[in-house]
Amino acid sequence: MSRSVHPLLLEPSYWNQRLSELEEGAGSMFSSPREDLSGSGREVEEFRLKTHDGQLLWGLIAYPTFFQGSRPCCIKAAGPAEPIVLDPSAPETGTVEILYQVPAGRRLEDRVVDLLRIYAQARRQPRIEPTALRLSETSRVQRDEFWIASELLRRMPPKRGVGQV
Hints:
single chain; globular; six-stranded mixed sheet; 28% helix; alpha/beta
């Protein structure tokens, strides 16, 4: 799908500095079990992750329990006022789901970096197959940060950490 955007939104030199900052401050993801959401072929954890500018992102990771080893993964976002809803068919397909809440009033640039930070964290998870990691929009309106992040991942040469995003 082609999209008309301002060329600077995809300019590698614009993003290189932001992505290098992301590599330097990779941080860690804290997660805790969510027994209330687990079951029906999935194990669910709630996670918290600090952004590059100190905000807190939170979301859910749902692992299918019927499959062993690393699995494909899909990253989705919910808007500030949208509920985080797990896909009922994901456990049957063996897909790990990562869903996170986008903070209200977040600038586009920050939302892109937030998404790439979650992507980089997902690549480090032993139960996720890094080569089968994809970004997926959840609302009917295409989220610009998903499109920009996808284009950056496609266009930028791999680097250590985030560049391998």
